[in-house]
Every structure is written in C-alpha cells, then in structure tokens.
Amino acid sequence: MIALLLALGSSLAYGCADFLGGLGARKAHVLRTVMIAAPASLAVELLLWPVLGASFSTATLAWGAASGVASAAAFALLYRTLAIGPMNVLSPVTALVSAALPVTVGLVQGERLATAGLVGLPLALVAVVLVSAGHGAGSARPSRTALLLAFGAGAAIALQLVCLHQAPSDSGVAPLIVGRAVSSAVTLTAAGLMRRRLGSERPAYAVSAAAGVLDSLANLLFLLAARSGDLTVVAVITALYPAGTVLLARGVLAERIHRGQLIGLGTAAVAVSLLALT
Known about the structure:
Elements: H1 2-27, H2 30-52, H3 58-84, H4 87-108, H5 115-132, H6 144-166, H7 174-193, H8 205-228, H9 231-238, H10 242-253, H11 259-276
C-alpha cells in the first residue's frame, strides 16, 4: 500500500512537472527551459543527500549514469515525436511502452500478482492510453518514422525507470544525483552545440525551476516506491502521469477534457483500487 501511494505521488508530480515544463517551453526554446530545470532538480537532490544519505558504489554509479543517459534520450525523442505528430496517436504509444517494458522486466525477475492485480494491471494499461489520448487528429495516421520515435521515447523512459530500480537499495539518493548530473551534462552540451538555434527569448525562470523541482520529487517518489513494492505495479501507476497534466490543463488553461480521457480517469481509479487489494 505504501508503494502504491508513493507511485501515485510520483505520477502526480511527473504530471505537474510536464505541465509546467510545457508552459515554460511556450515562452522560449525547450532547451532553454531545461537549462533552468535541470540545475534546479540537481540542487534538490543534493539537498536531500544529508537527509536520506547516499552511497556511491560502483553499481550505483553505473545504474545512475545509465538512467541519466536514458533520461536525456527520452527527452530528445519525446519532443521530436510530438513535433512530428499526430499527438493523439503518438502520446498513448509512448506512455504505453513506458509502462509495458518495466512490467515485462518485473515479471521476468519473478514478480507475481494476486487475482485482483491480474485484473487491475491490464485496466491500468488501458487507462494510460485513454488518459494520454488527446483529441483532434481524427483519421490522421502517423508515419513509420514517427511511430519508431514514439517507441524509442517510451523505451527510453522505461529504461530510465528500470535503471533506477536496479540500483542498490541501500544507495540512498545517489542514483538520482548521478543520473541527474549525467542528463544535465548531456542536455547542456546539446544546448551549447545548438546555441545559434535557441533564439533570444528568455525562459520563464520560476516556472522552469518549479518543473525541475517537481521532476526531482517524482524521481525520488518512484525510487522509494520501487524499493518498497513490485516494479510491475509501480511502473504502471507512475505511467498514469498524463492524468495530472490533463487535470491541470483543465483547471489552469480551461482546456477541455474529452470523453475518452474522462473514461480513462475513471478506469485509472478502478485499476488503482484493484491494485491496492494486491
């Protein structure tokens, strides 16, 4: 139950971080937003070091660095995917892959679910797709390149979560610190190489920093959830993060929540209840 609540908190924090990051990216190039968010996120994790501790063993360094590289790849692939479109097809594909791969890893490692979990897990995967799906592309079909990028983005997100889960359980926040340092270095290097294409717009500093803080909190909650529960359940609940983005968009930007997304939110509630019974 604790793992379930932590995963729900991680999902909500990821959704809020994505919402704020999206707002920031409207004001300036997305890399300018990340250049503010990444150091803010790393600062939070460094502040958590004295509180939660950190052990930088060889395994921790390896898994943390791998999660950082996967995080940077996920960022690049995801935004490239959504730029090509159609979003209402590609976003669910990305979310589903990011949930399904960790579930597969968990099952291969020997995790087993009770009867309620065997029903709740597929329902949660359906909810991920419904909540992620937007409205408007209609009959538009994605290109083969767009679909490959969507699968790649989902796989990179999943790989980041799996690497964090594989880090030693007694390593504290060390995997987060290492991963964030690596992903920040990769992102800042990319921004330096692309500096002429970033434009002159100033980023929304407060919004971008808040997105980084929330992303750091989401990573921490996922790490704690994965250490206290099954990856199969934690990964799927975490993948419901678009729900938070959808609800914030409705409340702050007055964007419409479409029927499929409402069904998805209801399905998610049922799925979480069933998973709680496991």
